Amino acid sequence: MAVTKIFFNARLKVMMGLAIAAGAVIALRLVDIQVLRHNVYLQMAERNRTQVLYQTAPRGRVFTADGVAVASNEPSFSLYYLGGNQDAAYLDRLAHDFAPRLRLSAPQLLEKLRSGAKSGKATLLAENLSTKSMVSLQELQLYYPGIYLIEETKRSYPYGGFASHLLGYLGSMDDRAWRTRDLKMGYRLNSKLGKNGIEKKFEKELKGTDGGVYLEVDYRGRVKSIIEDKKWAAGSDVYLTLDFNVQNAAEEGLKNSKTGRGAAVALDPRTGAVLALASAPSFDPNIFVPYSDAENPAQSKKINEYNLAVQGIYPPASTFKIITAAAALEDGHLDITHKVNCTGHYDSGPRVFKCWGKHGPVDFFDGMSNSCDVYYYTVASQIGSAAIERIERKFMFGRQTGIALPGEKAGNLYGPTRRARNKTYWFIGDTLNLSIGQGELLVTPLKMAQFAAAVASRGNVYRPYYVDKIVSNQTGKTEQIGKPEILQKADLKPETYDLLFKALKYTVDNGTARRVKIKGLDVYGKTGTAQNPHGPDHGWFMAFAGREGKEPSIAVAVFVEFGEGGSSAAGPVARAMLEAYFGLGEYAPKPRPEEYYQELLPEESVHVGV
Amino acid sequence: MSAFKFVASSGRSRLDYLLLGAMIGLVLVGAMCVMSAVNSLSLSSSVVRTHLVALLVGGAAFFAGWSFNYQIYDEQWKAVYGFILFLLVGVLLFGSYQRGSRSWFVFPFFSMQPSEICRVCTILVAAAFLDRRGRRIRDASTLFGLSLLLAPVFGLIMMQPDFSSVVVTFPALLVLLYCTGVNVFYLGLIGLFAGVTGFFTITWTYIYLHPELTDYWLIKAFFELSHNGWYMAGFSALVVLAGYGAWWFFKQLRIFLPSFYFVLATLVVLAGLFGGIFVDHQMKHHQRKRIETFLAPKSDPKGAGYNVLQAQIAMGAGGVFGKGLFSGTQSRLGFVPERHTDFILAVVGEELGLWGTLSILGLYLLMLWRIIVVAYSSSDRYGYLVCSGIFGMFFTYMLVNFGMLIGIVPVAGIPLPFISYGGSNLVASLLALGVVQSVYARRIKA
Question: pLDDT tens digit string along B138-160?
């Protein structure tokens, strides 16, 4: 017996050893699962049991400097299906009852419902539903458990095409958007994001944090309870430097101009802030926020995104005579009282150059106010083209204004130095062409506004900016975005500016720019008509103005494509903008901004029958 | 053997209190977990009621097992054997057909699964048989005799069919044989048989589920082996040749081994092949899927792999301290399958955390250790054998149930005694521990 006992002992020991070894392996694996991989599994468990019905946060609004919300939000509704009841007859009934209200066909809706039922996840049936259809849907959802109506907001632009080239518009998430964004950044499959303009540039700030209803579901997708109703956090508001009325005047003016095509820019010459930046034709960004995805997506294809104000380049024509005049004044040899006899043409030797009229004897002021070409031909041939190019460079012609807009064109600098660099010849005809702003010289309307502002501020070439600040709706914190920035100083003699001011005022009071003569204001202006070999001439108008006896506080440049006369086509637009800025003439008190989503959206954000 | 010395100092107590403590701990934890696991089920109150009733019956069974002298089973082993056959034949004749097998007796107020109680009785009978073998215990005839004796039992169980019962009983018998002192070579042969059977079963199943593999002629030929008689005959001839070759080879090397070793090895490989063919033909599609899931758990997370994955998610989500009783989302919302029976450890893991699972593991190890101590301290060989068999049974349960959850054993549909819901299993397990206590109580020869 004793021998057997020892033998058994050994085998019992082996068994106990096996049990302990097995226990150790199991314990280690348990630690691995329950401690080391705890977070991963916890996340998976949470994902298992929760379904989220997201509520898009109201995007931050966009305000003009005078407080008008030009991009805002409207309440809208989204309809979800939770995939709980999978009975085919039920889905059929559901599709039939809801389809007409969602402007979908019953088979289309049934398709959505079926895929939703299959996936077991919340499925968006329709979004951007109007308040009107919401009432009937709300009633209907009581009869159909598993249907959720969620209140959200949708983007709206209350003034239609107002500053559409600056504001941009929204679009849905595409492959390119997914490459740089993901769910962690709060983007979902049906998120909208800024595709252009401010909406794109300040996407991060405008977006806000989406809210959502977190539902607890069982393994078959049936709703057990509402875990959390997370309120969204609205995005930050963007404040522009635009003046609502000036922008409005510019847009209306361009739309009603001879051809309806052109650009108008107004800057504050003291800072470079953009008061208006309009390009016609414009578009209505509201069309990108469709009622539902079934509605004419074709409409969104044909819009004019071309921003003529920064992308269109044209010869500045007679407005450029200010440069020639400044060059002559800087030269110091110009006798402003000396009269040049305008016979309607100028003989340069190889070629005869024409004037647009027959002005007789003209001095410096007459030359400006009548825009007499012969006077400038004469002056230019005396001072030489290099002097003109020097001034041109001082005002940064041929360079971008540096505004934060995509696709800005630099235009083209025209002068002997540039020509020499290109290793071609400079002829006397070039000098004469340059003096009246024709030829190879090309500018954008914004460039001309910057130039007008530079003259108005006696030499400060500012970088134009149109975003003032961003105000957070959560913290109330203000982030200053736009600041005045002098790119270059056009340091001409003070007498030169004095004489230019005098001549430009004279032009407004007695000359070609009489259209912008406004009582109570000191207005300085110059017209221009750009010869166009391909069609009718383009009309230019540049002006700056201040209240009587005060320094100029607005500078405008208006360009009307194929407008023919600078004064007749572009003049009225400039006048309207000036009047709007100073609150004169037909400009009635401004509309008040409305607080959109704070009033319109109730606290209770879900209407549910679980 | 410091662990076994503990016995000597425990005096003349009639109960092993540590074993009793482990048992009570497991039963209490189990009752709590079952209540929590079924909390969200519509039939929860009936489940809890059944569990508590089973606990009472099990308590009675424990006392009965403890107070009866275990030597009665040795003396009256034929009666016990008859009882097993009676139950198993009875269930085939009168049992109710549920979930594809006939393994339940349904009475007006309760139902029972006879194979659970039969498992314990089988151990008692096997131990009695081995006890009677005396000094011939190391002979091969012992194994053949035992196989002949138990063949009807396993045959009847397979007729239900109750695959999982076999899965637990077979390893328990192996442990019993090992502790009896059977020649390790024979055990090795049994292991070889099981290994060959398992190899064929698993590889054939894998090929069956991946038919594109048969493009390669060797794999195709291998697969043909499972159902083509010509291939079987050819392969058998090859095996016999290989056996003869090995014998001849060893002879040339002048290493003289008894020739019946080679005969046995050859026979065992052939038996393994036919065992594999038999299992392969018996297997149902869901069982094949289980093997597939075990071989590649990530292959089908929504389908067959779903259960194990969800169970592991539940355990992992519980972390160290768990989410608290009645608050596990995975189990409450139905993501964990069979949450009050086979996968109850997942519920424990989720709601009580690592502490819960480790506590159960610890209680199990304590229980196993005490059973071994009792086996050691037994006054006769029969008590020793009974305890080894019961040890083997609980060890298998622990290994398979924990192993299934942590992904080292295929899902076999085996509960965790004391913790899982299941009245018959609880009663049988408590009875087994009662028998162990009976061995302990009678360790000192009067």
Answer: 887 888 899 899 999 988 988 88
| Helix, strand, or coil (residue A211) | strand
3-class DSSP state of A205: helix
> What is the least distance, in Å, from the CA of A52 to any CA of chain B?
16
Task: Give how many domains chain A has, as a whole number.
Answer: 2
d(CA B380, CA B375): 9
Is residue A577 helix, strand or coil? helix
Measure the CA–CA gap between B375 and B57, rounded to whole angstroms: 26
What is the distance between the alpha carbons of residues B12 and B10, in angstroms, rounded to a whole number?
7
Asked if residue A295 belongs to a domain, the reply is: no
On whether any CB of chain B is under 8 Å from the CB of A564, the answer is no
Which residues of chain B lie closer than 8 angstroms to A44, CB-CB?
313, 316-317
**Tokens representing A32?**
């691995």
Is B298 a residue whose pLDDT tops 70?
Answer: no
Over residues A295-305, the mean pLDDT reads: 55
List of residues 6+ apart from B226 with CB closer than 8 A? B200, B204, B276, B277, B280
In a domain, A184, yes or no: yes
- Domain co-membership, A235 together with A319: no
Residue A507 contacts by C-beta under 8 Å, 6 or more apart in sequence? A368, A369, A371, A513, A524, A525, A526, A527
Would you tell me the crossing angle of helices B114-132 and B77-94 to the nearest 10 degrees?
Answer: 150
Residue (of A466, A467, A474, A476) closest to A58 by Cα position? A474
Print the domain residue range for A527.
314-464+486-586
Convert A493-560 into a string of H (helix), E (strand) and C (coil).
CHHHHHHHHHHHHHHHHHCCCHHHCCCCEEEEEEEEEECCCCCCCEEEEEEEEEECCCCCCEEEEEEE
pLDDT at A294: 39
ipTM over 0.90: no
A451 shares a domain with A359: yes
B377-421 residue pLDDT tens: 888 889 999 999 999 999 999 999 999 888 888 777 789 999 999
Q: For Cα atoms B257, B259, B260, give the angle at the middle one, nearest 5 degrees.
A: 120
Judging contacts by C-beta atoms under 8 Å, the chain A residues touching residue B178 are 11, 14-15
A586-597 burial code (b ≥16 CB/10 A, e <16): ebeebeebeebb
Same domain? A448 vs A531: yes
Give yes or no: residues A355 and A227 share one domain.
no
Name the token pair of B318.
Answer: 């519980």
Judge whether A309 lies within some domain: no
Please name the member of A27, A35, A217 whose beta carbon is closest to the beta carbon of B319. Answer: A35
Same domain, A231 and A363: no
C-beta of residue A251 within 8 angstroms of C-beta of residue A89 = no
The upper half-sphere exposure of residue B184, i.e. CA atoms within 13 Å in the direction of its Cβ, equals: 1
Report helix angle A88-98 to A131-141, nearest 10: 150
**What are the start-end ranges of the H helices in A50-196?**
88-98, 106-119, 131-141, 164-167, 175-180
- Confidence check: pLDDT of A452 > 80: yes
Beta-carbon contacts below 8 Å between A and B: 132
DSSP characters over B380-417: SHHHHHHHHHHHHHHHHHHHHHHHHHHTSS-------T
pLDDT in tens, A65-119: 888 889 988 888 888 887 655 667 878 888 888 888 777 788 888 888 887 776 6
**Which amino acid is it at A548?**
E
Question: How long is chain A?
Answer: 610
- For B301-337, letters b (16+ CB in 10 Å) and e give eeebbebbbbbbbbbbbbbeebbebeebbbbbbbbbb
- Residue to mutate among A6, A15, A46, A217, with most B CBs inside 10 A, is A15
| Model pLDDT for residues A485-523, shown as the tens digit of each residue | 999 998 899 999 999 999 999 999 988 888 888 888 899
Give the E-state strand segments of B87-239 in sequence order. Answer: 96-98, 101-106, 111-112
